[in-house]
Amino acid sequence: MEMWVLWSVALYVTMILILKALSNFFGVYYHHKAYHLVMITLNSQHQIEWMIWSYHMSNESKGKRGTITCIDMGSNDDTLEILQRLQVRYPRLQVVKLNPQESTGDPIQQWLTSQEGNKEKLLVLDLREPDAEKRFEKLMA
């Protein structure tokens, strides 16, 4: 009878160790939280609504609540009006207006540094593409 108890304890401990190893392995790759999407915009009126909508729909389909922060670098097109309209539809959308001419240093890096205490994983997407409007006009022509 003692041998049976020893084998049972050994099997129990082995199963616990295997389950712990599996949870550690999959815990690194799988998480229930969405990334905090940070979009850097500059005259991005043609792509901003699609990006926000697709990120929101992707998270909703997975049952996640993602936060979006749009950092505008002084757009002179309709980007800010679009973002203000989208804030009504998506309450987890934040808009930060930065003016790179007024501040010293890199204002984006300063904002990202201010978020270091935040435990959310940041995903930064830079939409400040040079000649984006010219490419859009060529597509529409």
Question: Main attributes?
Answer:
141 residues; Rossmann fold; alpha/beta; four-stranded parallel β-sheet; elongated; 15% strand; 2 domains
CATH topology of the largest domain: the name is: Rossmann fold
- Count up the helices: 5
Q: From the 3D coordinates, which CATH architecture of the largest domain would you assign?
A: 3-Layer(aba) Sandwich
Low-confidence stretches: none
Distance between the termini: 86 Å
Overall spatial form: elongated
Strand content: 5-15%
Number of strands: 4
Mean pLDDT: 79
- The helicity comes to 40-55%
Biggest beta sheet summary: 4 strands, parallel
Please specify the SSE layout and strand pairing.
Blueprint: H1 2-29, E1 36-41, H2 48-61, E2 68-72, H3 79-89, E3 93-97, H4 107-114, E4 122-126, H5 132-140
Parallel strand pairs: 1-2, 1-4, 2-3
Description:
- The chain is of the alpha/beta class and 141 residues long.
- The protein has 2 domains: 1-30; 36-140, Rossmann fold.
- It is 50% helix and 15% strand.
- It has 5 helices and 4 strands; from the N terminus they run αβαβαβαβα.
- The protein has helices at residues 2-29, 48-61, 79-89, 107-114, 132-140; strands at 36-41, 68-72, 93-97, 122-126.
- A 4-stranded parallel sheet has the order 3-2-1-4, covered by helices on one side.
- Helix 2 links the parallel strand 1 (36-41) and strand 2 (68-72).
- The N and C termini lie far apart (86 Å).
- The model has no long low-confidence stretch (mean pLDDT 79).
